[in-house]
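User: what does the whole thing look like in 3D?
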Amino acid sequence: MLVLMKVKMAMLAGALAAPVLATTFAPAPPSDNDGALRLSSTSFLYRAAGDFSRDGRPVEGPLRHFRLSSDLLVMKRQVTVGEYARCVDEGACPRIAATAGSPDLPVVGVSWHDATAYAAWLSRKTGITYRLPTDEEWTFAAAEKARDEIMPLVDPSDPAQAWIARYEAESARDRPTAITAQPGGTFGTNSLGLDDLAGNVWEWTSSCFLRVSLDGGREQVTNTNCGVRVVEGAHRSYMTDFIRDPRSGGCAAGVPPANLGFRLVAEPSRSVATSVVRNVTNLLRRT
Amino acid sequence: MGAAVAALMMAAPAVAGAADDLKLPRQKVELVAPPLVHAHEQATKAGPKIVEFKLTIEEKEVVIDPAGTKFHAMTFGGSMPGPMMVVHEGDYMELTLVNPATNSMPHNIDLHSATGALGGGALTHVNPGEQVVLRWKATRPGVFVYHCAPEGMIPWHVVSGMHGTVMVLPRDGLKDAEGKTLRYDKIYYIGENDLYVPKDANGKYKTYETVGESYADTTEVMRKLIPTHVVFNGKVGSLTGKNAMTAKVGETVMLVHSQANRDTRPHLIGGHGDYVWEAGKFNNPPQKDLETWFIRGGSAGAALYTFREPGVYAYVNHNLIEAVELGASAHIKVEGKWNDDLMKQITPPGPIPPEKVGALAPDTVTR
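Assistant: Here's the predicted 3D structure for the full assembly of 654 residues, as structure tokens:
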């Protein structure tokens, strides 16, 4: 009975994935393995990123059904050392330590600024608008690889319980034994055909850190910090935009991402309108 | 010769005869790797005894950071630092030091807790394939470093991992300045390592086929006195995440910290040292309520702390560059009930209320 259900589930998943995989984005960016895939927009579950509170107590962000306003064109693989190096050679991207590595490996040790510079350069080269995905877009593309970081219910008057719960969840997670970037495909392909999501390279998104109050059943953003962006991988994290090496230690008692890298989405793949507006507004406000 | 005598001879150590001159009871201790410490009594009503320990020297390649940097370690018992050995004042330690034939170098041991013969160093030189048994009397209570000290190569062996700690407890246990008994519910041993890993022309850490081949380059790095890694218990992250130490609110934890080569300054973020033997010697009264304590290179210190709030604590070398950039950070996960009296977030982070912005008008700010 159970086996039968599993088979049915697998068939269902296969049926959903097939049309999505069908279209490979035509004007391929300058590499063999970073071809983009067109993912048909469907509804997915998304837990809002940021710090949420209700009546002054930290709570999980709301979990909602979400749907991108159009299909998503997203790179199958993370941007590689070789691809990034070309941008460096043309003087459009900052030189970083990792560009000395094997050209086929995913580029790591990149800040949000480095990734953004690469997107701008690639857009100029190809005439196609490339940019970092929003957190919603990343979550959609990651599909089953996106982990919902819901924490166990804890006594809200005891902040330490939440810290311990989060620390234990982060510590208990199976971590790839390899810490250095691995060749593309090492961490598998997800149901939508994208490689290496939630492996040992965390990916920058364009989403800013938000502090949100849920008091009185109303969602109100009380602070937007675009100096800190959402990074996604085996767990969601928030990273200051100029950080290239996400190490922790000292006062920081959490478990940091192993590496920072990125993949890009291409327009026209109008994302969730609100999200784009929000991010663009935030960007404008910042500059 | 009766069967009983034969059995007695079987139980006797390899160099029997001379070793039985004391006619004292014997106890054999199985050592455990840090941060754990073998089971022991904090105070004892029994008389002095001979406590037997066996340390097997292991030269081996280890990984010292998340980037996978490889390092030729030399170890007492396979861990960096070597295991802590606990006896009571007046006891005799009988230490069997084994240098298996699989090793490549001669080694020995200098115990700061022992008296004479360079701390035993002059009597314990063992080549690969040899072992030696040394007995020494514990005359001073405290935590003391032990380390390898082969002529000409002492610092290299020490910073390659060959150090550990002996704890000599007063027979009637630890006391505060007023003579009140101090006890711990739990003990952890943190050994700090300063590591000096050579880099190639591209700035990448170099690897070597054998420990011997790494010697010349490593010495070059050592002579500049700037470690590439400063870590607890042999590697970055050895005491964090799944390996984090644990405690409960209300538990008293003894934290022994050794540094065989270089000064350090442990600090428990969000906590204190209730009672600290900064120099590690228990005949001196412990200092109270310390924020950070100083461990002189070549010594061990001990701190007692009773946890009062739950949470994840960081225990660091408070040269924060060494803690965060070079690796000297540990975590202690403390379960229990939060105490609002000690700390409470009155207003969570939120927008600055307009009237308060007004109250901070520039002309009201004194310079």
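In plain terms: Chain A touches chain B through 35 residues (CB under 8 Å). The first strand of chain A starts at residue 36 and ends at 39.
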